[in-house]
Design a protein that fits this description.
Length: 318
């Protein structure tokens, strides 16, 4: 099976009845973009730019960032790049950006909340992304957004940059989206869907915050299963709101490469899966194994269960 999946890695992934689902790769290092393409990735669905910042001893300046983002864009050769703005705090401290001691770092200054405390840092990053993508399409994604107000604040910075930077020096076509990883965002997806260009569901954090289980907890993290029906309902709400506004929805958390979850996610209407580069051929192969009706049946069955164990029991025997 693996050999077959590898052989077909450059083919688009379509369900048995021809429904296309994009399969992209998650990336933490722009130098690995070429490898992701060689493994069949149709784009980068999540560039975790915080790893780029962590590799430096101080905030990387505009030119340093442009050079690194350009490395990924060059390797992608026109394929889409979804670059997530700096997502530190919580489990990912940045030594040169100390955050006051917090009792609950995962509920504290992280992601967009942290970067909005120093908007000039966010602005430099956004400028670097826009300029690195000169003449090319670009997708920028904001992490840990909890409601439309945070999105609007970031949108204002982006809009100002789009006016400031001459058109030929910046991305030709920009999509600005948000990660769905805080339950409030899924619950309020209709209000966000009207304003964003896309959503990408971060099931790692969405599961953590929905089930109130620390994703790294040694005793509890095994219970943090993204196939929990409560998480699936939030994904369903997100997709319905997005599609009602003609916006696309990806999944970039671990759940996107779970063989049991793939048909459920497709059944819920997910348009793109972003997984580790190594998983790309296997996820594509998994997508070719079922049709949309089966996917919808599996999603319906999963949503009707009361626990993640029940979801796995009912799906895995099939
Ligand atoms: C997620 O939360 O699912 C996600 C993709 O982001 P990260 O794992 O980097 O927090
Ligand atoms: Mg996350």
């Amino acid at each position: 099976r693996e050999a077959e999946a590898w052989e077909a890695r450059f083919d688009e992934a379509r369900t048995r009845d021809g429904h296309r689902v994009e399969v992209a790769a998650n990336l933490g290092n722009t130098a690995h973009a070429a490898d992701a393409v060689a493994r069949g990735a149709e784009g980068i669905g999540l560039l975790r730019t915080e790893f780029l910042f962590m590799a430096h001893a101080k905030l990387p300046d505009l030119d340093t960032q442009i050079a690194e983002y350009r490395e990924a864009l060059d390797a992608l050769d026109g394929r889409p790049l979804v670059a997530r703005t700096l997502d530190v705090g919580g489990d990912k401290p940045l030594p040169y950006w100390p955050v006051p001691q917090e009792a609950n770092p995962f509920l504290g200054l992280r992601g967009i909340r942290l970067t909005l405390t120093r908007p000039e840092v966010l602005e430099t990053q956004l400028r670097a992304l826009l300029m690195a993508a000169a003449g090319k399409p670009l997708r920028i994604m904001l992490p840990m957004v909890k409601d439309v107000a945070e999105f609007r604040t970031a949108r204002q910075i982006v809009d100002r940059l789009l006016e400031e930077i001459p058109a030929e020096q910046r991305a030709s076509d920009l999509q600005l989206g948000v990660m769905i990883e805080v339950p409030s965002c899924a619950l309020l997806a209709p209000s966000l869907a009207a304003e964003v260009d896309f959503f990408s569901v971060g099931t790692n954090d969405l599961t953590q915050y929905t089930l109130a289980i620390d994703r790294d907890h040694p005793q509890l993290s095994a219970q943090a299963d993204g196939l929990h029906p409560a998480v699936l309902r939030l994904i369903e709400m997100t997709v319905q709101a997005a599609h009602a506004h003609g916006k696309w929805v990806g999944v970039c958390g671990e759940l996107a490469s779970d063989a049991t979850a793939v048909p459920v996610l497709v059944g819920l209407g997910i348009d793109e899966l972003s997984v580790s580069a190594r998983q790309v051929p296997l996820v594509k192969a998994r997508l070719r194994e079922f049709d949309c009706e089966e996917a919808r049946t599996q999603a319906g069955l999963a949503l009707a269960q009361a626990t993640s164990e029940a979801v796995r029991n009912v799906l895995e025997v099939r």
